[in-house]
Amino acid sequence: MGNRVSTKNAIANLKKPNSVAYDNGSDARAAAADLFGDDEAGSQSDDVQALRAELERVREQLTRRDNNALIMVEDGVRALGRFSLTTRALISPDEITGDELNLIVTFLKDVKGALQFWIGDIVITCLKHDKEAFGKLARYLEIDLDTLHAWVRVCKKIEPTRRRVNLDFSHHAEVINLKDELKGREDEILDYCEKNGLSVQELRAYIRNLLPSKSSPRPVSILFSKDRIPRLVVLKTTYLRVRRGDKDAAKEMKDTLRSYREWLDEIEKSLGLK
């Protein structure tokens, strides 16, 4: 119960982080003042001496740290090797080696591929403690409600242990709405996709080919099932985001329109009009 209350309070008090960082000239006294207060810090008690030794040990480890470690060096600034990352810039040294370039672009690729999963997972965690967390996190992260809902839905349907490292979020999104004939084959399809390096478009074609022959009309209940009928509210929201110059929304719009065209084509074929 304690953890639940703590988590709910954390959500309610969500605010921009304000980390405390110490420069290279600081020592255990400054840290002790933060932890124990100035009076206790000045006593040089055994506890403070132990803390000094511990901070020195940590500082030595950080000095020898692996360049692959991402650390907070000051408020709002993180370091990865010799690169500095802020919320608005990536600052590189004047000369970089091939290994360093590989390190930073691999890191950026990993973050790009993981971000939607990370956000979806933290929303799921927070919702266990606060049913209002969805709206609060959407506002804090400045993410459209429909977009966030789509991300969370994928994360709920495909648990972390079932996600494929070599497949994008979009690949996983394709298998959460499989037709009834393919329900339960999500992992099999993801495995095939990963093994053969399919693009999202190729994955869609592969899924279509797994479906039974369309020689006879599809049942109306399937053709007009809830998950297949276009959601105009979502379409309008995405359209407005594209108008505002959102590149991610433009990609979502292309995928959505392609899906709707496929649905309309299927209706025409079922009626013998195409």
Low-confidence stretches: 18-43
Give the helix tally. Answer: 13
In total, the number of strands is 4
Q: Name the helix and strand elements from N-terminus to C-terminus, one letter apiece.
A: HHHHEEEEHHHHHHHHH
Radius of gyration: 25 Å
Strand content: 5-15%
- What is the arithmetic mean of pLDDT? 79
Strand order of the largest sheet: 1-2-3-4
Structural class, from secondary structure content?
mainly alpha
Main beta sheet: 4 strands, antiparallel
Shape: elongated
What distance lies between the first and last C-alpha atoms, to the nearest angstrom?
60 Å
Helix fraction bin: 55-70%
Give an account of the 3D structure:
The protein has about 270 residues and is mainly α. The chain has a domain at about 220-274. The protein has 13 helices and 4 strands. The chain has helices at about 1-10, 30-35, 40, 45-65, 100-125, 135-140, 145-155, 170-175, 185-195, 200-210, 220-225, 230-245, 245-270, and strands at about 70-75, 75-80, 85, 90. Strands 1-2-3-4 form a 4-stranded antiparallel beta sheet, with no helix packed on it. A hairpin with a 4-residue loop joins strand 3 and strand 4 (about 90). Helix 2 crosses helix 4. It is elongated.
